[in-house]
Amino acid sequence: MKITGIQSQIVSLPFDMGGPPATFAGKAWTHLDILLVRVETDEGLVGWGEAFGHAGIQATRAALDGIVAPLVLGRSSGDIAALSRSVLHATHLLGRNGPFVFAFSGIETALWDLAGKRAGQPLARLLGGEVRERLPAYASLLAYHEPALVRRNVEAACAAGYRHIKLHEVTEEAVAAAAEVTRAFGAALMVDVNCAWSVPAALRMADAFAPHDLLWFEEPVWPPEDVHGLARVRARGVPIAAGENTAGLFGFKALIEAGAIDVAQPSVTKIGGIGEMLRVITLCEAHGVRPAPHSPYFGPGLLATMHVIAARVEDPLVEVLWLDMEANPLDPWVRAENGHVRLPTGPGLGCDPSLGVLDRYRVGSVVRTA
Ligand SMILES: [Mg+2]
């Protein structure tokens, strides 16, 4: 059960979002970059994980290859909780929320994949849950800005069978255009503004969006750690969602104790992996907060989220990015059909990524061995 090899690899998958590409850090966003983590043990087993990358993928990869992988190599793959404690303690002075925790998240997920493969059980069952083969999903649309484009994509997502739609728009005009369509289809609407506003501005926008009856209003306040500011927006009566930028269990404890959220969104590739996400879900259960994990992923991070949701979330809803991918390493499993995703039910995460797709779209790889 000893960890003998850790490989990081970046695959870059072209996509079409149904409009002009979004920009981030001055660059057009035309490819989805995924940081895959492959962990090998002396039993000959291989586990897969995914570490959060986005525009900072090279930083996460440097943290993984240079610091986190050497801390993990040679250790037992079986005692995931103790290994998490030890690695996160060793790296805590480098940040409790950032590339080092993201990097470890990928390894931790791969260790759960290994645990499931060793036991011959899908992760959902290993977590004590039922393996639900289909899970309801929501279409998470990127930012289009133009109300006409927003409308066109919301119509397409509703026509594809989604009954939950999330926007990344910041104007009342764009939200109103979407709301007209979702109302006609009987679909729920959520709006995510990625921490766009000060508290006074967020209060004004909460009032502006109020007629559209949002299922949730996501991360309205800058900075994300202003839990009391977020609680003031929630007091306006709109359900608040947050958590993708929250550091671990104690970050969620602060959000919940401040009365800031209705919906908690732990992100498995960012928070430290599956174990920390399970702790957050338990905390949510104790406080009547709905867990709705953040999962705009197309790799093992999405699979891990789906298994955790299947096993542990009473009211399941899986976030799926509204994109047309040139290739998907998890095909055919996670392509949404009629607003639902299919959970692969093999041992561990249920399926391995397609090696053919990885070979075709890989843009870099580093192997570390014990
Ligand atoms: Mg979000």
In short, what is this structure?
The protein is of the alpha/beta class and 370 residues long. 38% of the residues lie in helices and 21% in strands. It is globular.
What does this structure look like?
The chain has 370 residues and is an alpha/beta fold. The protein folds into two domains: 3-120 and 355-369, Enolase-like, domain 1, CATH 3.30.390.10; 125-342, TIM Barrel. The chain is built from twelve helices and 16 strands. Strands 6, 7, 8, 9, 10, 11, 12, 13 and 15 form a nine-stranded mixed beta sheet that branches. Strands 1, 4, 5, 14 and 16 form a five-stranded antiparallel beta sheet that branches. The chain has a two-stranded antiparallel ribbon with strand order 2-3. Helix 10 (274-287) links the parallel strand 11 and strand 12 (290-291). Helix 1 (57-72) crosses helix 3 (99-119), helix 2 runs antiparallel to helix 3 and helix 7 (199-209) runs parallel beside helix 8. The longest helix has 21 residues, at 99-119. The two termini are 13 Å apart. It binds magnesium ion (MG). One of its GO terms (biological process) is amino acid catabolic process. Residues 147-239 form the Mandelate racemase/muconate lactonizing enzyme C-terminal domain.
